[in-house]
Amino acid sequence: MANPLFYAKILLFGEYGIIEDSQGLTLPYSFYKGTLKFSDLESDFEKTSNISLQKYADYLGSLNLPDSFKLNISKLQKDLKKGLFFDSNIPQGYGVGSSGALVAAIFEKYSVKTYLPEHISKDQLKELKKVFGEMESYFHGKSSGIDPLICYMNLPILIENKENVDKVSIPESHEGKGAIFLIDSGMTGETGPMVQIFFEKMKTEGFRKTMKEEFIRYNNACIDAFLKKEMNPLFRNLKSLSVWAYEHFKPMIPESIYNAWKKGLDTNAYYLKLCGSGGGGYILGFTKDYKKAEKMLEGFHKEVIYRF
Q1: Which GO terms describe its biological process (predicted)?
Q2: Of the residues 134, 200, 231, 254, which has the maximum number of CB atoms within 10 A of its CB?
């Protein structure tokens, strides 16, 4: 059996909001992927990966996971001695789930019990999300478990609230004028410090209020409109979301993107939003006319992820 591939993920909606119980919508992104492999560890990349996996295995061994989700740590450690490493082209610090894919790959290979993603019930999803949260906390200090869950399931996931997630089908991508795309900010972002800034902001009552009353409302309305393929309400709420982020998430918007973000709002040609925690990495763009947006965003590296 060939080693399964674990794809990157894109959080279309819900960045920071899911910390505060908003909805979220995530998609697998097959452009980037990772898989566990064996080698003689001759390259620096393979060596470094193997050494960091050894440290990670020690951490996993210290976790007290529920019986139905236990990991075979001794097998993992034996495999590491045989040259196991994680072969991945998922960029780190880009908000597309590099650690999530690794966690999913480890669970798939070393979980004592075998699970088939398509047969996992909603209750099991909830449990698995908790387990993945513990497994991924090693990388981020605190994790919701969402990223590994998406990478593991390889299906679009609707985050209903802090506790509940469900599989969801999204409208099929087809060659229209409109597009959802990624823009490379040209710098990496670190999740930890960005989340720290967010929690500092949450200490002020005014920010908490606007987060709950405005951000979460626009965010959830975007998800609802996208799943129903209602483009006018989608773009109306996207604009509100983009304006809100421009005003309140300034520290999370990479400097290289400031002007382009504002230009989109001023011309209504496209709207930008954070992809993940921000600070660098990718930014998400939405437009009804990709050709026009592409011209206006000349000089940026862009990747289309969805057409409509």
Answers
A1: isopentenyl diphosphate biosynthetic process, mevalonate pathway
A2: 254
Distance CA 267, CA 2 (A): 49
Instruction: Please name the helix (run of DSSP H) or strand (run of DSSP E) that holds residue 232, with its range, or none.
Output: helix 231-248
Distance between CA 215 and CA 138 in Å, rounded? 29
Tokens of 176: 């229209």
Q: What is the average pLDDT value for the chain, to the nearest integer?
A: 93
Q: What is the pLDDT of residue 2?
A: 60
Residue 151 contacts residue 101 (beta carbons within 8 Å): yes
* CATH number of the domain bearing residue 77: 3.30.230.10
The tally of domains found in the chain comes to 2
- What is the Cα–Cα distance from 34 to 137, expressed in whole angstroms? 19
Does this model's pTM top 0.70? My answer is: yes
CB-based burial of residue 144 (10 Å sphere; 0-12 exposed, 13-18 middle, 19+ buried)?
A: buried
Cα separation of 35 and 24, whole Å?
26
Across-strand partners of 183?
283, 302
**How much is the average pLDDT of 59-66?**
97
- Two tokens, residue 110: 């070393």
Q: Is residue 155 part of a domain?
A: yes
